[in-house]
């Protein structure tokens, strides 16, 4: 029998995401996918999954999840407080775990994920991935068209997300942690100018690169509205083009001159001139920053942006290799030790990988 | 054919073939797209992920950790030279539309502003076999044209916050059917009972760029019986679809 995760509380917005849906943009279907795909890869590495396995992305406030029938290994990628509640309501026992490490959630235990402190989104990697049917090659949820994920929508209280075939086997493995989690402070966001930079005077483009912009509250997974100096189009060009292709990161400038950065759920074509496009490496800085975050744009060439993308890929692989067994960090949970003794008879202190349970905090 | 190469960040390039909406330019775009798509699915252009045709340009999405932009330009160039050799099988759709008042909130205004009667608007709209230039805006939303010059009006000054699913709409030189409820500023002149997009259907998207579409007037009664057949899963899609060979 396969295990499941029951949604006790969905937090603010939680849904299934993977790396997204490609190959269908010609039919108007956006890519979607995790807004922090590098975090998704790290999380999957922490729980022993393939890099692109689907998990749960949550926004602002995390969900409370209960393991049903089988143990499951989870890793929350975000700086957020996590409480593990065991023993049922009568004898509830709570202890804390941190983000950026894996832990086992045993049947009937609940993981309560708190409020995000520095970002808009977090990602929960789940051992074995989630057992939902891919739609057009992806499990990513596109809420606006009720596509993918669990019934195409946000997770609701009482929903049960079935887990993949390897879930139980992976749950039995050692907990792991990422020693130096990624930090996402935003000061500058790099862009490639164009494709429609010829709709703007050079002075306007310089202004665009000098201005400070703030991410508006009116931002979602479709796009981030920016507040800052208004950008004027050339008079003879106007503020509309014959619709052409876009990517997440494309910065549209509509008639009011306030830029909009298209994000993962953004449409596949657009009719406003695009002054510049955020490079793939930096897009998460906009997609995942809190409203009110202030930053500057900096122009790089498209070639340079590809070099940056390759360096970021190498850095991500280096981070994956830095992942170590959690117990090697010196945190040993006496409760886990005690339970191991009861179940397994003898615990080899020199081989901490064999501890089940959570190797953190509440001694 | 002359074209401009426009960088769209580090993971796409737009190849632009013109600055107007025209059948000829779009046909070229779709030809390049068809050939490139075949090579992508055969694994012949490693690093290119997909291409998206629009009215007058083709956006080629690529993996920046595999290809540099200049390599993408070199990879795509032969497909542009080759042009639209293989666009010979086209699907033609005949869509039932009801023009009853409750489905056509703007028909009266369109008639008044174009100096035609409502029936003339309907029959002029039905005379044209439309080309699907591109999809976008919403999943399955097909931009079709060209609309007869007598029916061309700018978009509504006050867009609607919710255009009902299935609405047949016109604006400028284009016509479209809304695949799902959405905000929209086009003029609504009828309603189609068949969903252009349905995630649960075996073929979620009915139309593709390059298809042809014409519209057939149906009564409210027939409209409702089609709706009923669709709800029961008994609707025969082959009745609205013709595969035709184009010379």
Automatic annotation (TrEMBL), chain A:
Keyword ATP-binding: yes
Domain Carboxyltransferase: 26-316
Stored PANTHER family: 5-OXOPROLINASE SUBUNIT C (PTHR43309)
Protein name: Allophanate hydrolase
Keywords annotated in UniProt: ATP-binding, Hydrolase, Nucleotide-binding
SMART domains, per the entry: AHS2
Source organism of this protein record: Terasakiella brassicae
Molecular function terms from GO: ATP binding; hydrolase activity
UniProtKB/TrEMBL annotation, chain B:
Domain Carboxyltransferase: 3-207
Single GO term (MF): hydrolase activity
InterPro entries cross-referenced by the UniProt entry: CT_C_D (IPR003833), Cyclophilin-like_dom_sf (IPR029000), PxpB (IPR010016)
SUPFAM superfamilies, per database record: Cyclophilin-like (SSF50891), PH0987 N-terminal domain-like (SSF160467)
Keyword Translocase: no
UniProt keywords, alphabetically: ATP-binding, Hydrolase, Nucleotide-binding
Record-linked NCBIfam families: 5-oxoprolinase subunit PxpB
Official protein name in the record: Allophanate hydrolase
Organism in which the protein naturally occurs: Terasakiella brassicae
């Amino acid at each position: 029998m396969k295990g499941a995760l029951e949604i006790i509380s969905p937090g603010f917005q939680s849904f299934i995401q993977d790396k997204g849906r490609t190959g269908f943009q010609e039919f108007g279907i956006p890519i979607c996918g995790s807004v922090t795909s590098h975090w998704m890869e790290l999380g999957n590495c922490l729980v022993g999954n393939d890099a692109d396995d689907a998990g749960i992305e949550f926004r602002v406030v995390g969900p409370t999840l209960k393991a049903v029938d089988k143990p499951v290994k989870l890793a929350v990628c975000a700086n957020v407080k996590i409480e593990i509640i065991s023993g049922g309501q009568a004898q509830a026992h709570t202890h804390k775990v941190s983000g950026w490490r894996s832990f086992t959630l045993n049947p009937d235990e609940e993981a309560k994920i708190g409020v995000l402190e520095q970002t808009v989104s977090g990602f929960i990697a789940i051992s074995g991935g989630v057992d939902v049917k891919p739609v057009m090659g992806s499990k990513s949820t596109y809420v606006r068209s009720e596509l993918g994920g669990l019934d195409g929508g946000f997770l609701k209280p009482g929903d049960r997300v079935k887990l993949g075939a390897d879930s139980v086997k992976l749950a039995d493995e050692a907990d792991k942690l990422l020693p130096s989690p990624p930090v996402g402070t935003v000061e500058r966001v790099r862009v490639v100018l164009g494709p429609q930079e010829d709709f703007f005077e050079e002075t306007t483009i310089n202004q665009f690169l000098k201005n400070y912009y703030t991410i508006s509250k009116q931002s979602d997974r479709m796009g981030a509205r920016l507040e800052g100096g208004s950008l004027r189009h050339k008079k003879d060009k106007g503020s509309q083009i014959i619709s052409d292709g876009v990517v997440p990161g494309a910065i549209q400038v509509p008639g009011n001159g306030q830029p909009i950065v298209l994000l993962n759920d953004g449409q596949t074509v657009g009719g406003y001139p695009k002054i510049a496009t955020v490079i793939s490496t930096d897009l998460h800085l906009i997609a995942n920053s809190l409203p009110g975050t202030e930053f500057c744009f900096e122009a790089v060439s498209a070639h340079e942006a590809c070099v940056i993308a390759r360096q970021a890929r190498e850095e991500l692989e280096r981070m994956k290799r830095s992942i170590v067994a959690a117990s090697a960090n010196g945190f040993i949970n006496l409760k886990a030790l005690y339970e191991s003794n009861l179940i397994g008879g003898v615990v080899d202190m020199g081989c901490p990988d064999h501890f089940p349970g959570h190797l953190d905090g509440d001694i | 054919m002359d074209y401009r190469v426009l960088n769209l960040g580090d993971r796409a390039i737009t190849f632009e073939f013109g600055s107007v909406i025209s059948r000829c330019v779009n046909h070229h775009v779709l030809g390049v797209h068809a050939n490139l798509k075949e090579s992508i699915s055969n694994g012949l252009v490693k690093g290119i992920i997909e291409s998206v045709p629009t009215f007058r340009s083709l956006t080629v999405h690529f993996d920046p950790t595999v290809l540099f932009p200049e390599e993408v330009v070199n990879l795509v160039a032969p497909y542009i030279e080759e042009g639209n050799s293989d666009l010979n099988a086209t699907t033609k759709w005949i869509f039932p539309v009801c023009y009853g008042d409750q489905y056509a909130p703007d028909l009266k205004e369109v008639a008044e502003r174009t100096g035609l009667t409502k029936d003339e608007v309907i029959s002029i709209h039905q005379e044209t076999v439309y080309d699907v230039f591109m999809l976008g805006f919403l999943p399955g939303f097909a931009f079709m044209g060209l609309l007869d010059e007598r029916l061309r009006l700018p978009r509504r000054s006050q867009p609607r916050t919710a255009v009902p699913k299935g609405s047949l709409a016109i604006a400028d030189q284009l016509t479209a059917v809304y695949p799902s409820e959405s905000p929209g500023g086009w003029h609504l002149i009828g309603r189609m009972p068949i969903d252009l997009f349905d995630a649960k259907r075996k073929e979620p998207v009915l139309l593709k760029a390059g298809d042809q579409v014409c519209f057939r007037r149906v009564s409210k009664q027939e409209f409702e019986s089609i709706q009923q057949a669709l709800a029961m899963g008994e609707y025969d899609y082959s009745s609205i679809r013709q595969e035709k060979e184009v010379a």
